[in-house]
From TrEMBL:
Protein's name in the database: SAF domain-containing protein
Pfam family membership, one: SAF
Keywords of this entry: Membrane, Transmembrane, Transmembrane helix
Parts of the chain that traverse the membrane: 9-30
Domain SAF: 41-103
CDD domains, A to Z: SAF_CpaB_FlgA_like
Length: 235
């Protein structure tokens, strides 16, 4: 072996020793970090932003591993604990779920009835109404020779329990011609009196619309403000 080969072999040995030293240094560092962080545990986090009272579905949450020492005692550990509940308020993507952040879906309280109707997917809901919202149910009724057409709020501040998926609805237009539209089943919690009013107007109205109320808006309108009469009259 000539001097150049000996220098090359020596350099290779030194490089190998250096790599081994670095490897063990990394192991020591990782061991030190692990000892400081501690064991890992699974928690549930949101995979996207969630609105208040939005129902939680399986693809909206995931489990991630985080250091156990940083996890609050109230953190939820399994997605099976959250699917089917609704968000108590709005949350951002990546938020760790804890007890109290989710609540059961709004249900029917004593004295109320669960009533479902189908409303127009475009004019009645338009993708804005969700479970937990409060809405006014507005119906348009055709007039006759003695009575003008009118729009009226038939049910005020109705609690929405559930909004279904759009489906094809067959019916007729104002001229009696056959037409097919997209309808959305919406379920409400109503008093017996409001349930009867809704059942009546659903049968005889030209169109039903839902007017979404803002958060905390429980104002009861005056009777004169609930009706609009056609032909330039209002009362």
């Amino acid at each position: 072996m000539n001097p150049r080969q000996r220098r090359g072999a020596l350099l290779l040995v030194i490089t190998s020793i250096g790599a081994i030293v670095v490897f063990f240094a990394v192991l020591v560092y990782l061991g030190d970090v692990s000892s400081k962080v501690g064991p890992m545990t699974a928690v549930v986090q949101f995979t996207r932003d969630v609105d208040a009272l939005e129902p939680i579905e399986e693809d909206m949450v995931t489990t991630v591993e985080v250091p156990e020492r940083w996890v609050p005692e109230t953190a939820l550990r399994s997605t099976t604990d959250v699917v089917g509940l609704v968000a108590a308020t709005a949350y951002t993507e990546g938020s760790t779920l804890q007890e109290g952040m989710l609540v059961p879906r709004p249900g029917v309280q004593p004295g109320y009835r669960e009533v479902a109707i189908v409303v127009d997917a475009e004019t009645g809901v338009a993708g804005k109404v969700a479970s937990g919202n409060h809405v006014d149910i507005i119906a348009t009724v055709e007039g006759d020779e003695t009575t003008p057409s009118r729009s009226e709020i038939w049910v005020s501040n109705a609690l929405v329990l559930e909004v279904g998926l759009p489906t094809d609805v067959e019916g007729s237009d104002a001229s009696g011609n056959f037409e097919s539209t997209q309808g959305v089943p919406v379920t409400f919690a109503l008093t017996s009196a409001d349930a009867l009013r809704l059942a009546y107007i659903e049968s005889f109205s030209v169109k039903l619309r839902l007017a979404l109320r803002g958060d905390g808006d429980d104002q009861d309108l005056a009777p004169a403000d609930k009706v609009f009469l056609g032909q330039g009259a209002q009362g």
